[in-house]
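Action item from last meeting closed. Structure (356 res):
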């Protein structure tokens, strides 16, 4: 019995040895092929990764790879609303994700763009750069513009006895509450025009009521916002209340643009066929001037491509009417255009005309 078992064992071992001899050459050949493959240069266009490869990436890496931070503004303001609408339209899953950020307002968003981690883009008033000239002499090299979003027209509403800008000297003028565009841009513009007034910073509703009643010596209110302003459209004013014209000259050319107010904007304050010359502060979408070889630059470039190519969606009825007046090619005084935005316009010479 033991001899039979031993014979069977020997036969089994012999069979296994023969099988290994037969299989081993194929294993050697396979290894040789793998070594050869490692020495072959990669293809010029690699195939897309398999789903299981993409799934192996860490969630944090996937989420952050193409996320762009956009500093908008105050929760109740137009800039944060436009930022949210841009985020909706350019969203492309893991390929592009825009985070609109509520901030202290467009006049302070330059700080966010320069110093706040994760912020690649910001909506600012163009003249807010004036505050940084002394601290950062080359500020206009650090920031580039993507898009001139909309103009914020200067409105100077005065009482009947005020006939010109010069009449405001020494008078009480309200510039709305601190943190608003009027509170920053208004005094800056008055300073450039050489107007020395008694500045107040109370809510415009309070100042308008004082003007109507002739109380507190309030001579004028200054709004810096897109026309038409609801307070002027719906308000009822005694004869003589009016907007003062503001001349556009070399003192204002660096940050401002010429603008007008007319009867179509304010039929209660401007007669049919008349117009009031004023200036406008461009509200612009700007980007930090990232190095062209950086990932941050690539993120903003992808954002620009998505935004510009999908502008027609933003000009639809579901979005803010301001989008319908946007001209992609419109400049922003004092700033150079972001390189990817200029490249897109060069490649689509007629693309900017669709929004005019």
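Sequence:
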């Amino acid at each position: 019995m033991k001899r039979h078992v031993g014979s069977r064992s020997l036969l089994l071992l012999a069979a296994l040895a023969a099988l290994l001899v037969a299989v081993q050459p194929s294993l050697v050949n396979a290894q040789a092929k793998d070594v050869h493959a490692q020495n072959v240069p990669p293809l010029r266009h690699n195939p897309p990764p398999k789903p299981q490869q993409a799934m192996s990436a860490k969630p944090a890496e996937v989420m952050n790879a193409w996320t762009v931070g956009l500093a908008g503004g105050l929760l109740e303001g137009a800039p944060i609303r436009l930022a949210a609408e841009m985020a909706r339209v350019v969203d492309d899953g893991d390929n592009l994700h825009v985070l609109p950020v509520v901030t202290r307002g467009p006049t302070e968003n330059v700080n966010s763009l320069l110093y706040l981690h994760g912020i690649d883009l910001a909506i600012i008033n163009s003249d807010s750069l004036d505050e940084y000239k002394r601290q950062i002499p080359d500020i206009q090299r650090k920031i580039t513009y993507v898009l001139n979003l909309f103009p914020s027209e200067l409105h100077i509403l005065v009482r009947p006895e005020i006939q010109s800008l010069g009449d405001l000297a020494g008078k009480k003028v309200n510039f709305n509450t601190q943190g608003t565009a009027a509170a920053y841009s208004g005094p800056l513009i008055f300073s450039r025009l050489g107007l020395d007034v008694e500045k107040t910073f109370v809510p415009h509703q309070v100042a308008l009521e004082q003007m109507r009643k002739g109380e507190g010596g309030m001579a004028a209110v200054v709004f810096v916002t897109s026309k038409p302003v609801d307070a002027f459209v719906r308000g009822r004013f005694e004869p003589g209340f009016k907007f003062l014209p503001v001349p556009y000259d070399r003192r204002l050319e660096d940050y401002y643009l010429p603008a007008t107010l007319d009867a179509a904007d304010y039929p209660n304050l401007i007669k049919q066929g008349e117009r009031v010359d004023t200036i406008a502060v461009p509200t612009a979408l700007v980007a930090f001037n990232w190095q062209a070889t950086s990932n941050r630059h690539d993120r903003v470039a992808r954002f620009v491509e998505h935004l510009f190519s999908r502008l027609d969606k933003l000009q639809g009825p579901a979005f803010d009417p301001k989008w319908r007046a946007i001209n992609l090619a419109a400049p922003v005084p004092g700033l150079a255009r972001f390189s990817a935005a200029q490249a897109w316009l060069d490649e689509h010479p007629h693309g900017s005309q669709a929004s005019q």
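Note appended to the action item: The CA atoms of residues 102 and 134 lie 27 Å apart.
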